[in-house]
């Protein structure tokens, strides 16, 4: 598909198409982790300020998604997983996606600064820049470490939420950042394993393409072990508690079991069962982050309502 065909406006664009540019599934993770970062902070936040802060963090995440789809429309048209997106399908023009991304970027940063503080707004601005420029325009097509380094963009929301509440960065917000950062590589490498030739066809140097699938399986295991160590460290911080500690033990053992199962497989085994183990690990990874951040939230709620378990 040529750039010309990607720029054709069919006139069929709907609100849903423009909303899809914001990557709503990714935005939901941004909203949730940012909200947890804001609520577990040791500073009470007025409900209206909390709502508007999370709203503009979400819009900033959506802006990043629109800019990503604008730049990546050529490779999105090649990959089976993404060819139905609004730009490669011809429902939205690249120019419209760029305008939406830039407009929401400016709006979200400005309004977050006015609603909470300028440290949070600065972190949001850096996150948008990092995802749209450093990851999308540079790392993604240049290095197999794209997901490792680029994962920082998705790890900033809890830190931004914490900054919106406290006006500062602390060890607790850095640990939440690290938890999300270390989770990202095994999550996306599992996806790359069962998407098979998509990244190869698109010329994206994902680890499966540059180093092979055996190496990717080893990397998943290594990063899952490192992730478990980071998750354990959070339990000993001021935001950790008994609910988080128990949850971390269970979900990390579950996640490590899945990583070991992936490590033990070869391609013949994977093909024989349609990559069921890899797909299961990918879906468990989605639950993993939700479970740990929910546990942080529950521990905070117990403390604030005077219901400490120990």
TrEMBL record:
**Catalytic activity of the protein:** heme b + (2E,6E)-farnesyl diphosphate + H2O = Fe(II)-heme o + diphosphate
**What is known about its subunit structure?**
Interacts with CtaA.
Query: Which superkingdom heads the taxonomic lineage of this protein's source?
Result: Bacteria
This chain's function reads:
Converts heme B (protoheme IX) to heme O by substitution of the vinyl group on carbon 2 of heme B porphyrin ring with a hydroxyethyl farnesyl side group.
Keywords from UniProt, A to Z, are: Cell membrane, Heme biosynthesis, Membrane, Transferase, Transmembrane, Transmembrane helix
Cross-referenced InterPro entries? Protohaem_IX_farnesylTrfase (IPR006369), UbiA_prenyltransferase (IPR000537), UbiA_prenylTrfase_CS (IPR030470), UbiA_sf (IPR044878)
Q: What is this protein called?
A: Protoheme IX farnesyltransferase
């Amino acid at each position: 598909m040529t750039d010309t065909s990607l720029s054709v406006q069919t006139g069929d664009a709907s609100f849903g198409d423009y909303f899809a540019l914001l990557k709503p599934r990714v935005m939901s993770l941004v909203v949730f982790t940012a909200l947890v970062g804001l609520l577990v902070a040791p500073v009470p936040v007025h409900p209206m300020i909390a709502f508007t802060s999370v709203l503009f963090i979400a819009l900033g995440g959506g802006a990043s998604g629109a800019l990503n789809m604008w730049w990546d429309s050529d490779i999105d048209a090649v990959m089976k997983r993404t060819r139905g997106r609004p730009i490669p399908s011809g429902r939205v023009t690249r120019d419209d996606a760029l305008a939406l991304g830039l407009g929401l970027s400016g709006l979200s940063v400005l309004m977050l600064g006015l609603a909470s503080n300028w440290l949070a707004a600065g972190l949001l601005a850096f996150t948008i820049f990092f995802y749209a420029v450093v990851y999308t325009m540079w790392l993604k097509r240049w290095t197999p470490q794209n997901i490792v380094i680029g994962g920082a963009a998705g790890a900033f929301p809890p830190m931004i939420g914490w900054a919106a509440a406290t006006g500062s960065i602390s060890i607790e917000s850095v640990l939440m950042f690290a938890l999300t950062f270390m989770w990202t590589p095994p999550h996306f490498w599992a996806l790359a394993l069962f998407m098979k030739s998509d990244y190869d066809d698109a010329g994206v140097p994902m680890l499966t393409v540059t180093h092979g699938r055996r190496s990717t399986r080893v990397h998943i295991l290594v990063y899952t072990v490192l992730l478990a160590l980071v998750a354990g460290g959070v339990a000993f911080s001021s935001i950790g508690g008994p609910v988080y500690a128990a949850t971390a033990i269970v979900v990390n053992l579950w996640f490590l079991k899945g990583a070991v199962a992936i490590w033990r497989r070869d391609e013949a085994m994977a093909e024989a069962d349609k990559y069921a183990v890899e797909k299961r690990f990918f879906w468990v990874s989605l639950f993993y982050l939700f479970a740990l951040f929910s546990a942080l939230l529950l521990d905070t709620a117990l403390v604030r309502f005077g219901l400490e378990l120990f």
